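My main concern about presentation is that the manuscript never shows what a single data entry looks like. Each protein is reduced to its one-letter sequence and a matching series of backbone shape codes. For the editor and my fellow referees, an illustration may be useful. For illustration, here is how one protein appears when written out as sequence plus structure tokens:
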Amino acid sequence: MKEIRKVFCLKYLNMFSVPLQFLAVCVGYYFIEAISRHSLFSAMDFMTERPLVFLYNAFLIFTTTLIVYLFRRRVFWRTILFIFWMGLGIINGILLSTRVTPFTGPDLHLITDAFEIADRYLSPFFFVVVVILFVLAILGLIWLFINGPKYQGKMSYKWNVPLILAGVLAFAGTTKLALDKRVLSNYFGNIAFAYEDYGYPYCLATTVFNTGIGMPRGYNEKTIDEIEKSTETLPETGEKRPNILFLQLESFFDPTLVEFLDVSEDPIPTFRKFMEEYSSGYFKVPSVGAGTANTEFETITGMSMRYFGPGEYPYKGILKETTCESAAYVLKDLGYRTHAIHNNEANFYGRKNVFANLGFDTFTSEEYMAEQDDTNPNDWMRDRNLTKYIMQALEETDDPDYIYTISVQGHGDYPEEPMIDNPKIKVSGGSSQAENYKWEYYCNQIYEMDQFVKELTDTLSKWDEDVVLLMYGDHLPTMGLNVTDVENKYLFQTEYVIWDNMGLEKKDKNLAAYQMAAEVMDRVGIHEGNVFKYHQARRNTKNYQVDLETLQYDLLYGKQYTYDGANPFERTKMRMGIYDTTLDSIQVVSETDHTYYIQGTNFTPSSQVKINGEWYDTVYVNPTKLIITGKELDDFDRLSVVQRSNSSTRKAMTKSHDRAVYALLADSKWKLDSEKSSSDTGSMEETDTASETESTEDSGEENSTDNQ
């Protein structure tokens, strides 16, 4: 009887396998949304208030599960698909606990960046749990594959294959119908809200497959010619060439705009004073709580993110492949030197590669800064160290300079417990003490950033050249703010100030990030660059946004009618750091344990010695001294000092010249008298370069990024 019941059950389970599978998918999808929304009740509200959207997303997942009907081990494949979709839900839930924006397709390209900063957000215990669960899952899947149940009936591919095809076609038709009836949307003005409105699976799929800029209606050469003619009313570029500085302040905004927050004193007194004295206003940005690189993209290129796919990062897409018109390229044509500065590691968001495609001559990243140990409690480098490197860039040549600086100190995640002894600014008014601690930490960080702004402007005030300095926040901090929480009732904006030592007239206006470079250039009489001239001539005119989309498409994805069919911008041979790292001499400290001082210039904590092509443990002492120990150096050993990436890859970025020990050690018997004299005076001249070789990992062109 027991066996009969088993056979009977299996028969009917197989008979109703498809509807039962869909029902199981609906249950699983409910929990995916619950994880993403951090609430079972929020998921229930979504299911009951937007049932068609809920069923559509369930249908999307169900369509992917139809593949199980091609295999006998259906339980095994259902389990794999369950782990896949539930894993995506868990990833999204974790990300939304640390930032405002959900998990998107472009985040797949940022996986290396995620590993780089994950330890700042997640505890070691969490990683241990993840590793254990991963191992258990693998072992479980192996057991299930070997011992799990198999379909015992006849495999009927003539029915199963058409079933799968019918499911795919039905899903495609459902998608078109849902878009036509506005049940779904393929435009996300706010990606976080879109995920809440249209469900996680659909939005994730959209960000994976909907990328770039689609060809606008009516795109042709004539349309581009008309757009270009509309900018001919602008005056000619003047003779002035002031230094133009952009300072992007990480997560910087005015906390007094948060209506429920009470602060003991003004966290941004300098910035507020400047807003009263210089041109200022609201600064519209393309993201909330994250997406620094997209604000950069808009301010450097003058292009709007609204025309790209939802959740897209051009730094991880089109700009990996091609050069792009930018403020750096435009100003270079006017005789400017162009510099990028960032007190975080160079490869984050792929900047080390992208900045060369945006026309920068130099890029000074964290790896080229001696003050890497000057960090806040969250281990982000303090912004006050940036003043030194901005001034180095200004001093590099007599040419005018365009300097784009990206700060990092204000970066989250903000701790829910006290991290600062005797904080200068105390905060109350949050919904919990943990929230108050987060705001207190944040307010004290931006207070320090505000002091950095004061130090920088005080220094620039003494500079004997004309300077225009734009300062702005890249996005709101990751605090889970709603539009009802802020005084201006809008989350996609911070504030800006245009400081100068030239006596520019104060003109207050609200601007978008993609309009800002054009505005600054206009203020100093520069009318160059297709995109920037467009903003100067067409802002707030009829068809402004329509024509901007068409122009962006032409420049990045179209036939480039603007450039007569050929991109004129060549990738720059960008150097890392302002000054070379040099290896000048060796001093014996102890012959017993073979300890040596390596002496030179521009060393940082990222400097590491290579001996005969092999990495060697190195201790950073100061910008002119390193220590190595434990290996006796021979006269003909070859040494170099390499700047290594602070990312998890630890790749070599740039290096000093290879030099033989005999040319560096003052008392070497192999050294000629002239060489001894040269070494004793600290010269970096290499006397034995004929045999110099470099590995593929190290650039053959010192301080070049083109031959890495």
Remarks:
- Residues 675-708 have pLDDT under 50 and may be disordered.
